[in-house]
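Note to self: keep these together.
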Amino acid sequence: MSSQHFANLGLSQSLLRAIGDAGYQIPTPIQSAAIPPALAGGDLIATAQTGTGKTAAFALPILERLSARSVKGPRAIRALVLTPTRELALQIDESLRVYGRHLRLRSTVLVGGVAQDPQVRALRQGADIVVATPGRLLDLIDQGFVALDRLETFVLDEADRMLDMGFVQAVRAIVRELPARRQTLFFSATISPAVASLASSMCRDPLTVSVAPPAAVPVNVEQRVMFVAKADKRSLLRDLLRDRGVTRALVFTRTKHGANGLARQLAQHGVNCDAIHANKSQNARQRALADFDGGLVKVLVATDIVARGIDVDGISHVINYDLPHEPEAYVHRIGRTARAGNLGVAVSLCDLEEIPLLRSIEKLTGTSLTVVDGHAYHDEAIAACSERTRTPAPAPKSRPRRGDFRSYRSAGRGRHASPR
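Structure:
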């Protein structure tokens, strides 16, 4: 944790007052590393996981630099934040409004899934900062509603996710609309060769900062795996959700159809749940998140497309109903729990076909998940197959703490993750 205070980072009193009003005093490591060079005006490539405070790491420098220099004439777009999902765009805009509450700057959001007319009206009224998803921004550029010729700062947030979702061509098309002379702040949770290539095409002599290993898993997340036949997954999930230790659970499926079907099946068995995925309207997605955040819904079934857009405190459990094809997605999924120093539990339901995915996750994170076999649907054949493919892991340094799901403890045979 950083020992600095925000007051030492070169921010104005207006911003410091807003930060204090929001209850923050000590910057996170990514904020300490990124804010000073961003304030200096240089390009930046930053590697940071979600939940580390990276939104403030670029939002505060944008607000500081824009407020420090007034521009004559009509209000124009001077900063653009490009992000892969609607949820992230809305959260970033909310942060800009919180931090900029004492400044005379205006931000607006351009996202798909909702009518464009209110967004066009907001653009006509003038906006200093635009937070957008690629598709809607390109649509409005093509229609002549967005002019970026006076842009000063461009932020690409969640760059690796942009590539995963197939937005690379849209991002490149948007970059071609930007002034060559600009500041570029490039944020990504991981830096693969493809992400590095994209960064090099956008940044000039960037400073690179990294505050965590690319696949860092929070130490306060207890990671477990349950071997189960695919046909028994729903029954096992229902049993898990009956545990009183599960106060708020996020369940991940691989497909939108799977999320809808699972949510309906759980509701039929008396589980208070909802589903959230890309095919739902923006209003429906926001309502589902609000109900989940407010405690009206105990279980939210989601797909990976919103794995980084769910920022809800108090999620006690993340359950991987389907293991992700990309091991990096596992890290983002389980990062939704154990936030703000709290403890959390991540449980993966692994069938026979998913054993290679489990091995990829363990290889990426350097952690062997704790095997939980004391449940009614444990499949010994799948567990044995998994054991044959397992690379021996280092001996654990300490025993794990007792978590929730007490009736599904690992009968003394589990492989326990070593603390980081």
